[in-house]
Amino acid sequence: MITGASSGIGAAAARLFAAEGAAVVLMARREDRLKQLADDIEAGGGRALAAPGDVACAEDVRQVVARAEETFGRLDVAFNNAGWGTAGTPLHETEDAEFDKVMAVNVGGLWNCLRHQLPAMLRAGTGAVVNTASTAGVVATGAGAPYVAAKHAVIGLTKAAAAEYGERGIRVNSLVVGTTRTELIEGAVKQHPELETAFVERQIQKRMAHPDEVAHAALWLAGPHSSFVTGTAMAVDGGL
Ligand code: NDP
């Protein structure tokens, strides 16, 4: 189950995981994009299910987890990647509604996913969860304050779940993602053009990541080669 699969990092992960043989369940709100991606994956011989929904809605998430189990027999890997945030607006000028939305998607969405995925993984007898955090989850990078708070919470929830489920065969890790060229960043740069340089300059490699570079890290954390890794926040940030 991959959330935020309709674009950027999630779509790249969906293609990669499917190419590695996983049956992928694609969740996001834009149904047309999910259907197109699922069709592409199936045309290439993979297995994919477009399962539209809003991660901030617990009932949507419950239904997607149920569809994953019904369609493919079990849920054993989740890439909880859906997220949204803004940058460039000072805290005191940020609308309350933006704070609520950022928390609802990034934190509430992850909460909903964990609440429904973990029981499914207990039923499956195995599980690997990868949650998309951000460098903003470790340091205040210049992203908006709600996003910084939300991504810190993603890392906290990851650690809590890892500690509780480690003995039951479920691993939970997060990815500390640096600036990656996706619609999220393009939107922020459109609003605040000065961010383009700022985003690149702070990284040792002086460039943004390609979504595939993040997807490969997610694949490693989701797969068997990271079997002794849990509770970690793994940096894929071009060096800070
Ligand atoms: P995109 O905007 O390309 O992708 C975001 C994805 O999240 C889309 O598929 C979007 O789909 C989905 N999404 C957003 N809100 C919801 C919702 N309420 N319910 C379901 N799906 C939702 O950006 P990225 O690929 O960059 O973002 C992926 C993750 O990476 C996010 O968590 C982001 O915070 C994180 N990240 C990105 C960085 C970057 O530089 N790009 C850096 C650090 C972290 P739809 O609109 O169809 O619902």
TrEMBL record:
Keywords: Oxidoreductase. GO terms for molecular function: oxidoreductase activity. It holds the Pfam family adh_short_C2. The keyword Oxidoreductase applies. Gene3D superfamilies: NAD(P)-binding Rossmann-like Domain (3.40.50.720). SUPFAM superfamilies: NAD(P)-binding Rossmann-fold domains. InterPro entries: NAD(P)-bd_dom_sf, Sc_DH/Rdtase_CS, SDR_fam. It comes from the Bacteria. NCBIfam families: PRK07231.1. Belongs to the short-chain dehydrogenases/reductases (SDR) family. This is Short-chain dehydrogenase. The lineage of its organism: Bacteria, Bacillati, Actinomycetota, Actinomycetes, Kitasatosporales.
